[in-house]
Every structure is written in structure tokens, then in C-alpha cells.
Design brief:
globular, nine-stranded antiparallel beta sheet, Dna Ligase, domain 1, five-stranded parallel beta sheet, binds magnesium ion, D-amino Acid Aminotransferase, Chain A, domain 1, binds adenosine-5'-triphosphate, Rossmann fold, alpha+beta
């Protein structure tokens, strides 16, 4: 069976590494000529996501289609929804919602979940008074990642200044959000199977540096009741989308209340710990789910830490990783990217254990 995936970055690479030993051939599609996925054996099509002709040719080569990247143009997702060449998991509708912050937060509200207060800012709505207390975070409506396209606005003067250059084109759109002064960020990684069963290890706790995920701690150090509530909310979200595959759901935790921030319709950076948690990885579970397998029954994840390795001081990080790898509880996952730019995710390291046991060098990576 041939699995086709739109996107060819590190998530596709790690999916491919799980798909091959399960007997699948892995095909990736993206405009990137030096893709991490191809470096581990994916057969790559290099073409734009906008080209329906190329997408159709790609679909004719594979038996099933999935995603490792959510910012696929909406017309392409609509085409994928209509075509009858292959089955697509997760449903393209999930990506259409996830890639538009207004649709996404409105969907959360419809499901009855708590979110930050928000306002859809367009040229047309820019004269309306926004009934949200300062401070705000203004996010571009689409295509944001790692905090890119976000600005903090503290008062009316800053907002007025922002509005002056906010609409370089008619189509510029934003979401204004109330800042949640959270105590913790957590996420839920879950995999939903064709029969509706869900595999989920519970919440993982996440720390960001300069808006980029830095450290994940599994299990999250939160009360059991909140953990169950987060699992329930994420499961309800997955069900509402008739989701099949792995997804990541991000929450803020403030005063023992969960605020749903966003979800990613694909395996998620905060789920990388699953590769070394001594149970099933999020990529393995994704491949099993989209290919129609039943969920595993014996699921026993152990405490695990994940630290991202960025391009900032890559050579030093590799030296530290070498040192840590003398201890067999550490695992290094590098993405074989061409150049190490600051802020670029180059790899990550997992530690099979908890914060009290980890070598302090781990935090220097
Ligand atoms: P990523 O790709 O890292 O998930 P993103 O660019 O899609 O990020 P968000 O996840 O919404 O955007 O925001 C990135 C980070 O900014 C959050 O993890 C959180 O630390 C902070 N942040 C975002 N929205 C809020 C908010 N309303 N209140 C407080 N902090 C926020
Ligand atoms: Mg996020």
C-alpha cells in the first residue's frame, strides 16, 4: 500500500520512518526540493500545493492521502474533499478549520469550550470598537506558526498605530485575542481510529522560548481532574470533525481552568516524546489509524522529556548531544535539514525519565 502525504518536513520524515517497517511505501508532495522526508526514503513529488493537475497526478500514484502540514491552500483542500480517487485522512474539513483562527475558535465555542475572547479583524470591521480588555495578542488569521505573525498590543494608542499599516491588501485578516496570563501550557496528543476509538496518553506540559516550543514534560504536572477534562475536550473536538489520525490540541491553564488555544490536524511537536516513551509513537499511531488498523490495546507510556534543538547554536548542541548519548536513556532525532538557521527546528532529543533525573546538560541543548 502506498501512503501519500502533503508536506515533506520533519513530521513527514518521522511518519515515513514508522510507515516503512509497517510495509508501506511513502510518497511525499511539496514544493521543497531538499525535503527531510525524501532523505529517509519518501518518493518525492516537487510541485506547488496550488496545482490541481499535479495533485491529481499524485493522487493517482497512491492508495491513501494524509497531511503533515496544515497550510494547504483552501481550493486544494476543497478539491481533495470532492475527488473520488483516494480516501483522505484526516478529513480536509479539519484543515480548513485549523488554518483559519477565526473558524477554529468559533468551532471551539460552538462545542462549548472556553477560549480567550477574540475578534475577527478585517478592513471592514476595523472601525468597530473591540470589546476586549487590553492587553491583546493580534495574530494573522492564517499561516502563523511558532508565534510568527503575532504582535502584542497594550493599549488603544498601540492599536491605532497597528491599524495604520494593517491592511496592505484587501485580504489582510487578523484575530485579536485577549492575553491569557496562564500558569502553564499543556497539550493533548490523540489518535482517533476509523472505529471511533481514541488512543491518548494524557496531557504533556510545554515550555516555550521566544515563542518556539523548547521543552515538553510528560506527564504534565497537573491535577488528575484537569487531565481528564483536557482529554475529554480534545476527544470531543476530534469527534466533531470525524477525525481519523493523530492530532495535537493546545491549552492554556489559568486558575485551574482550561482555555483551548488551537489544534493541529497532524502529529505535533509536543508529541515527539512519544517516540521514546516506551509505548507507541504518535507517528506510528497516525499511520495505523489512517490505514484502517485497530488501536493497540496495551498502551503504557512512561515519563519522558523532549527538548527541541534549533539552528541557533547547532554545533554546540550536537556536542552536548554526543555527551548525553553516552547514557542510553537519551535519544537524538535529527531532521537532516540543509542549513541551520536561527529559530529553525533542526532536531530534538528525548530523555526516558523525569526532570529530577535528567542531566542538567539536557537544558543546554
Ligand atoms: P505554534 O506553531 O507554536 O503552535 P502559532 O504561531 O500557531 O504557534 P499560537 O500557538 O496561538 O500560535 O501562539 C504561540 C504561543 O504564543 C502560545 O503557545 C502562547 O505561549 C502564546 N500565546 C498565544 N495566544 C495567547 C493568548 N491569547 N494569551 C497568552 N499567550 C498566548
Ligand atoms: Mg500553538
Amino acid at each position: 500500500m502506498k501512503i501519500g502525504v502533503l508536506g515533506s518536513g520533519q513530521l513527514g520524515q518521522m511518519m515515513c520512518l514508522e510507515a516503512i517497517p509497517l510495509g508501506y511505501e511513502f510518497y511525499s508532495y511539496s514544493p521543497d526540493p531538499h525535503s527531510p522526508s525524501e532523505k529517509v526514503g519518501a518518493k518525492g513529488t516537487i510541485a506547488p500545493y496550488e496545482s490541481k493537475k499535479e495533485i491529481k497526478t499524485f493522487l493517482e500514484q497512491v492508495d491513501i492521502l494524509s497531511f503533515e502540514f496544515e497550510n494547504i491552500p483552501k481550493p486544494t483542500l476543497e478539491y481533495l474533499n470532492e475527488q473520488t480517487i483516494v480516501n483522505v485522512f484526516p478529513p480536509p474539513k479539519a484543515l480548513i478549520i485549523a488554518q483559519d483562527r477565526f473558524l477554529e475558535k468559533s468551532h471551539f465555542r460552538k462545542l462549548g469550550f472556553r477560549t480567550a475572547e477574540f475578534f475577527h479583524l478585517t478592513k471592514k470591521t476595523s472601525h468597530i470598537e473591540v470589546a476586549i480588555e487590553f492587553p491583546w495578542i493580534i495574530k494573522t488569521l492564517r499561516f502563523g506558526y511558532d508565534g510568527k505573525g503575532q504582535v502584542k498590543i497594550k493599549n488603544k494608542t498601540e492599536y491605532d498605530a497597528f491599524l495604520i499599516s494593517a491592511f496592505p491588501s484587501e485580504s489582510s485578516e487578523y484575530l485579536i485575542e485577549e492575553v491569557i496570563p496562564f500558569q502553564k501550557e499543556i497539550s493533548i496528543i490523540l489518535t482517533r481510529f476509523h472505529n471511533g476509538d481514541i488512543v491518548c496518553y494524557g496531557a504533556v506540559e510545554n515550555e516555550h522560548k521566544d515563542h518556539i516550543l523548547d521543552l515538553s514534560i510528560f506527564p504534565a504536572r497537573i491535577p488528575v481532574s484537569l487531565n481528564l477534562e483536557a482529554i475529554e475536550m480534545a476527544s470531543k473536538l476530534a469527534e466533531s470533525l470525524q477525525y481519523v489520525g493523530t492530532m495535537g490540541v493546545e491549552f492554556f491553564l489559568k486558575d485551574n481552568l482550561l482555555y483551548l488555544n488551537e489544534f493541529a490536524p497532524r502529529p505535533h511537536n509536543t508529541g515527539h516524546y512519544t517516540q521514546d516513551c516506551q509505548s507507541f509513537s504518535q507517528f506510528y499511531l497516525h499511520v495505523q489509524a489512517i490505514t484502517g488498523k485497530l488501536p493497540p490495546t496495551d498502551v503504557r507510556p512512561k515519563p519522558t522529556l523532549m527538548k527541541n534543538i534549533l539552528g541557533n547554536s547547532y554545533q554546540e548542541s550536537l556536542k552536548i548531544a554526543d555527551e548525553l548519548l553516552k547514557d542510553d536513556r537519551y535519544r537524538l532525532h535529527l531532521y537532516a535539514k540543509e542549513d541551520a538557521k536561527p529559530g529553525r527546528k533542526m532536531g530534538h532529543m528525548n530523555f526516558k525519565g523525569n526532570l529530577e533525573e535528567v542531566n542538567p546538560l539536557f537544558h543546554e541543548l
